[in-house]
Amino acid sequence: MTMRHVGLLSFFLTAAGSPVFADGWGEPHLDIVPRTQVEAERISNATASTDTFETAEKFETHPAGKATKFGIKTKDAFSFASANMTFERELDFKVGNGFFRKLWVTAPASTVSSDGLGPLFNARACQRCHIKDGRGHPPEDHSDTGVSMFLRVSIPKSFSDLDDETLKYLANAPEPTYGTQLQDKSIAGIPAEGRMEISYETVSVTMGDGSTVDLRKPTYTFTDVAYGDLHPQTQLSPRVTPQMIGLGLLEAIPEADILALADPDDADGDGISGKANRVWSGEFDQWMLGRFGLKAGAPTIKAQSAGAFSGDLGLSTSLHPAGWGECTGAQSDCRLAPDGSSPTDQLEVSDEVLDLVTFYSRNLAVPARRDLDDPQVLRGKELFYQTGCVSCHQPKFVTHRLENQPEQSFQLIWPYSDMLLHDMGEGLADNRPEWEATGREWRTAPLWGIGLTQTVSGHTNFLHDGRARSLLEAILWHGGEAEPARETVRQMSAEDRDALITYLESL
Ligand code: HEC
Ligand code: HEC
């Protein structure tokens, strides 16, 4: 992938027909101190790709720069504050953690500040899904309700009754009755929307050395529907909860540095495109680069968190002021249920609480790398670079220098994601677009901390819907733009394959 020079101002039209500022839309969420010329040169040296694999690189031990947390290899490994946080700010982090863990209750309740859950919801607390601040998983069996994943839902915009001007500012056209997310839980007296079901079929992949790996291919249905049939054109998108580490650093990567990696029309012909998602920000009333969510559908951590309060918990914030959360006009009883709004701001979750949860979500530390001088890890790293994994899993960035976010300011970080969308082929397609992302595109998953998944979460389920049961399975699902890289891995000797996996486990 080429490093397209971002300099000239230019405009182009997107598929939706709206003018787009090709060099970015701006970063109103950050209080940026502009880079000096000298800094820009230092940064370009520090982020240049390595070509030696005999030893680890300088600072490679610190994936999150000075915010990296050292010495923790327990199941709490994802739950520490940025290591460079002051004691005073850590108090806010702890209060934010309290709200992240808090179990919300139905309104009206004696604990006024904790009520307003639902009427429809997927879980009663953020951490019910973001378990140990790590990733979720699909249900293990019929007795497991699959609380840490859900289905997004919509219909194609061309089938919607909403007018074009309204649709322009929506990621998707909502399913007329069920909205944009299926909630499988509800308060007493209001039926839950239904139940997610997954069935798996086995797909065998024959490796270059003749051995086989069995993958499980999921099919999703939404059954026991309580509000009538879903629209015939319904699009479902399964989403497993992602890990929470390093998010504030991802939010602080300069937009220009992400856009410099984009190559939407594959102008350099390397088979890897990389496309920025462009999303509407209700918070700033403008288009912004999408960064969060599995299709980069949200511009900021605050927007994603407010969306979660509304869609996942049924709680209102100033960004989503409806006390009924995701109940649609077609779910009238649901809209009439009592809500937990406070008399002062008419909200269930105040701006103060939203800000504390956002601060918490921004500051979960990335653990330090382990074993990075191990010869097998170094060999695996070489393979990761040679195989082209780095075309999407971009190793390094330097974050903006920021006025009021010392933890995220000017850090050399190693997220192993370009923050762009890539076509991952038919196998991983959900066939549900989201803003500019097509039904085959996903945001490159950041790989930092991935080697601690077993330790933190007690499983190794990967990809957007947790279908992969190991790192190797996750790689073997890569298709589309990543097919050549996947084929290289499939043809690798067992020894090289093991080295590549051992390297991923050291991240
Ligand atoms: C029902 C499960 C569930 C609950 C409850 C939940 N989340 Fe999430 N969270 C998810 C899923 C799934 C995603 C990915 C969403 C997507 O792709 O759009 C996500 C994504 C995120 C992200 C973006 C992560 C990234 O890598 O881009 C943040 C931040 C976040 N959630 C914060 C919160 C906060 C704060 C709360 C509580 C107010 C919360 N979540 C509650 C399931 C949940
Ligand atoms: C064309 C871009 C691209 C290339 C090349 C690529 N990946 Fe990925 N990778 C992605 C995207 C996008 C996802 C998320 C897919 C999903 O969730 O369905 C992903 C997900 C992953 C995951 C799972 C992460 C998680 O959190 O669940 C692993 C592991 C991974 N890639 C490793 C690799 C390795 C190793 C290589 C090289 C052999 C590679 N990738 C090459 C784009 C790419």
Summary keywords:
alpha+beta; 13% strand; disordered N terminus; binds heme C; Thiol oxidoreductase
What does this molecule look like?
Residues 375-507 form the Cytochrome c domain. This is Thiol oxidoreductase. GO terms for molecular function: cytochrome-c peroxidase activity; electron transfer activity; heme binding; metal ion binding. The radius of gyration is 22 Å and the shape is globular. It has two domains: 11-86 and 246-278 and 363-505, no CATH class; 100-242 and 301-361, no CATH class. It starts with 10 loop residues before the first strand and ends with a helix. The protein is of the alpha+beta class and 507 residues long. Helices cover 23% and strands 13% of the residues. It has a two-stranded antiparallel ribbon with strand order 1-2. Strands 3-13 form a two-stranded antiparallel ribbon. Bound molecules: heme C (2 copies). One heme C (HEC) binds next to helix 12 and helix 13. Residues 122-123, 126, 128-130, 148, 150, 239, 241-242, 247, 292-294, 297, 301, 304-305, 308-309, 312-313, 357, 361 line the site of one heme C.
List the helices and strands and how they pair.
Layout: E1 11-13, E2 19-21, E3 32-33, H1 37-46, H2 87-101, E4 120-121, H3 126-129, E5 149-154, H4 164-168, E6 185-186, E7 195-206, E8 212-223, E9 235-240, H5 247-251, H6 255-259, E10 278-281, E11 286-289, H7 301-311, H8 332-336, H9 351-362, H10 375-386, E12 397-398, E13 401-402, E14 412-413, E15 421-423, E16 441-443, H11 453-457, H12 471-476, H13 483-491, H14 494-505
Antiparallel strand pairs: 1-2, 3-13, 4-6, 5-9, 7-8, 10-11, 12-14, 15-16
